[in-house]
Amino acid sequence: EATGSGSDLATVAMAFCSSFTGCHCCQARIGPSVLDCDTAMLATEAARALRAGADYLHLDVMDGNFVPAISFGAGVIAKLRSHHPTVFFDCHMMVAKPEEQVEQIAQAKAAHPETGKNLLQFTFHIEATEPRGKTQECIDLARKHGMLVGLALNPATPLEKILPYLDQVDMTLVMTVVPGKGGQSFMVDMMEKVRSVRAKYPEKDIEVDGGVKVHTVEEAAKAGANMIVSGTGVYKVEDMALAISTMKRSVELYGNGFSSDKLSPLRYDKDLTGGYA
Description:
Layout: H1 6-16, E1 29-32, H2 42-51, E2 56-62, H3 74-83, E3 88-94, H4 102-105, E4 120-125, H5 126-129, H6 135-144, E5 148-153, E6 171-175, H7 191-200, E7 205-209, H8 217-223, E8 227-230, H9 232-235, H10 240-254
Parallel strand pairs: 1-8, 2-3, 3-4, 4-5, 5-6, 6-7, 7-8
Helix pairs in contact: 8-10
């Protein structure tokens, strides 16, 4: 598997990536959206995706206000952490007042025992905070409670709304569907936002979420996204390991500019053995 430090990735990218406009040195990471799994078996379903090659878990917190649906909250995330103490959690806060949930989400904080890397990210929507003048407060609160910070924007929101804050956050999430509405397809026109952020921030994580699957990930990879959220593209396919490894290879090829011999290997469910450590 092609892994390494940021400087290692940068060296490889410089060598192979000159023809791709979304070139970057950020690690390719695939995060299954657990809303599409059997949530009654959440810890087990998370383990199944991780065993198949997922790099992190994307946890959608919905309050029935910011979006119509209600999912789960901080209590469930804290319990999930007890099952997966060394896994990166990206908590996607689709809630009306994210600043009020910072302290509770922070209960799932963890650091990797070997690398010391922070394993909890608090990702909130600019649409929930900016109209109330709470964006800066939310960023500061999340930092105060020891979490990484992600800032998300919906398809209808101009990129300019988040630009004043990008220097302060660890990740930008570009939604590629409208949150809370079912039956949508990947919005390829959102890739212009990804390209714009990538051009300005070659070392910042950029995530895309919504309709990303094996047949659409190439557009996101070419634009410069390195964190790929996929729900049905992971949990509703015949071969989970193959889907995850294929999407990861796309980011490595078009985003990192890896040559074919440097790409992560294709993996298949039939070859998986044992559990997730």
